[in-house]
What we know:
Blueprint: H1 3-10, H2 14-20, H3 23-38, E1 43-49, H4 54-58, H5 63-73, E2 84-90, E3 95-100, H6 102-105, H7 110-125, H8 129-147, E4 163-164
Amino acid sequence: MDLKRFFRHLFMTRWRVNAAFPRRSLHAIEKAVQESHQAHIGQVRFAVEGALHSTALFKGLSARERAIDVFSQLRVWDTEYNNGVLIYLLLADRDVEIIADRGIHAKVGSSEWESICHAMEAAFRRGAYQSGVLRGIEQVTELLKKHFPVHSPPRDELPSSPVVM
């Protein structure tokens, strides 16, 4: 077990999560997701989790594995065209994972998702949490517009509100 990681998670309090994502930032993220949903027929969700539980840390759960769990819990896979995308941030690790359902993943390569994640992580290292997330949503939106353009009036299949875990 990585002790540095363990202590990062141990000391990641709800206060620190709220400091990185105050109410105004969460509102701006929700607005960006709502606007994104008007530009394509895909679905975008954003979730931030402060830290993993100690049991998950002892088991060596990675941010990617946790993101897949959250993707399932939030039912991001439950869209008509299998084009849901979860942007997941594990704040204690400053690790961003993008989990895309099979409909969009078949059209967008892993390197494109990783590029978005790296850009967001770079913004987070500078303390620019809100702008990092908003830029990530913009980049995901561009991919969804390209591969899932609007055919009829778009409808929200998933909530636009960010999830703070």
